[in-house]
Design brief:
Number of domains: 1
Protein name: RimJ/RimL family protein N-acetyltransferase
Pfam families: Acetyltransf_3 (PF13302)
Shape: globular
Organism: Kribbella kalugense
Structural class: alpha+beta
GO cellular component, one term: cytoplasm
CATH topology: Aminopeptidase
CATH class: Alpha Beta
Strand content: 25-35%
Helix content: 25-40%
Keywords: Transferase
Number of strands: 10
Length: 204
């Protein structure tokens, strides 16, 4: 399963692709200020090798859980042939509500080039066009200006706020909601092998 745009590809996160990303995880290129991730997450582990091990184990566990109430598709972001980050799509009670949310990170040396926006646009195309989602959610800490700006630019609407912790400290989250009617469809995003993906997901 792949999603391609003029700027990048989302490729199913095989172990070979994860191995290409491991150096970015080990070297701390997943880090950002202010801290972007809520607890618990392996990317906050201070020991570099243990961080990679925990990160891989979390992905392997997630691959094995494909249930109607929760499933997760892991994609590696590839730009100019190089693995530079991850973009995940998460189904939430999809057969009942058609809802998804997303999670992503981008290597620090790739930020500020519009890749984050393009990654999200690509995963939304998969959700709405490929899987028939009715609604996509997102959340970001209020001081994560980049993620909040991407949500706003892609047509999400504010959907309240909530609290979460990062490294054990409370912080406020913005919640966002994008309906199928407000989704900004693009004609230059392509889905590859989508039927093979649909076959194994509990979509209805």
């Amino acid at each position: 399963m792949r999603v391609s745009t003029p700027a990048l590809e989302l490729r199913g996160a095989t172990d070979n692709l994860l191995d290409e990303l491991a150096d970015a995880v080990r070297s701390g290129k997943t880090h950002a200020e202010p801290l972007p991730y809520d607890d618990p997450i392996s990317l906050y582990e201070p020991d570099p090798d243990l961080r990679v091990a925990k990160w891989l184990r979390a992905i392997w566990r997630g691959r094995g859980k494909v249930e109607p109430e929760a499933w997760r598709l892991y994609f590696v972001v590839v730009v100019d042939g190089r693995a530079v980050g991850m973009q995940d799509l998460i189904g939430v009670d999809f057969p009942s509500f058609g809802t998804v949310t997303s999670f992503s990170w981008l290597a620090s040396d790739q930020r500020g080039r519009g890749i984050g926006h393009e990654m999200r646009a690509a995963i939304l195309h998969l959700a709405f066009d490929g899987l028939g989602a009715k609604e996509a959610g997102s959340d970001a800490f209020v001081d994560n200006h980049g993620s909040n700006a991407i949500s706003r630019a892609l047509g999400y609407e504010p959907n309240g706020s909530d609290w979460a912790t990062r490294l054990g400290e409370p912080a406020l989250l913005n919640r966002w909601r994008l309906t199928r009617d407000n989704w900004q469809r693009r004609d230059d995003i392509q889905l590859h092998n989508i039927e093979a993906c649909r076959k194994y997901l509990p979509l209805s």
